[in-house]
Amino acid sequence: xxxSWYISGAGHIAFILAVFLAGPLASxxxxxxxxxxEVAILSExxxxxxxxxxxxxxxxxxxxxxxxxxxxxxxxxPMAVAxxxxxxxxxxxxxxxxxxxxxxxxxxxxxxxxxDNAPTALLPPSDIDGSSSQPDQVAAxxxxxxxxxxxxxxxxxxxxxxxxxxxxPDPEAPPELVKEEDAPQAPQEASDRIVTEAEEExxxxxxSSMRPRPRPSRPPSPAPDVPDDTxxxxxxxxxxxxxxxxxxxxxxxxxxxxxxEREAFGLAVGQCWNVGSLSPSALATTVVVAFDMQRxxxxxxxxxxxxxxxxxxxxxxxxxxxxxxxxxxRCGTKGFQxxxxxxDQWRExxxxxxxxxxxxx
Length: 361
Description:
This protein is an alpha+beta fold. It has helices spanning 2-27, 44-50, 78-87, 197-203, 233-250, 259-270, 280-283, 314-331, 343-346, and strands spanning 286-292, 305-310, 348-354, 357-360.
């Protein structure tokens, strides 16, 4: 531990000695000399008064000439000499061309006399003298080119390609004979086939025979007068119609419906008869409804109609009829259970609807 103290103390002592010894050594250094000069501030007028007019300070503009250093010639190497010789091409000798004698061509002088006096164009006589105030008529540009321009003809005139001079007939000249041109005739019939005599004989034969004339009809012989006991046709038709009507009336329509079958029919329709929406006055109204039936037992919808009503107004009767109509249509969609052998009995049905119940007949 003491060695460290010794070392620390020796270091501190050395530092202190260095500080004290550095002061005198630093003071022995030569100090820098500072030169101060006095300067006076002059105004522009004072400076102009001090400097005489016309005298300007002479400045030295001549620069001494300095000799350029002489370049030392570098020793030329054989490689550099060879490179310079290759860079500078040697002049090529151009062969001289032989002298060619010049040929002289004699060109005759062409003397053409030019006449400046051109011929004047001949114009047709014109009626325009320039005295009228109307503008002169100038021919409009046309597709046809002519040596002399012509004005367009009036609409009534017929224009032609060539000019036709008007001629006046000579009264002393004999009249010209007009030649009638022959009308073109149609060429005669010809064929590209040569027909021999044998073929002509065959073709002269009759190909189709004429239809024979019918024989004249003989006049009918008069029938003997016989009294006609048979009735006429209208009388026969009327008699047959009466007989058919009698047979239909007499023909049996089958056995009538029993009471049980009628009650079953009424119960089937009553299942769909809903009178809950009717007013008391409509319930008190009795409605008779008629309709036709099909062989399958289904009613014909278009045939349902109201035959009669009683006990209320027409409006109440119409409401009661609509309820009865809906009941017949709803329950008859699948067909009512009725005997087919008695179809003639129930083909036309009349039903009475009232508050007490329904009756069928």
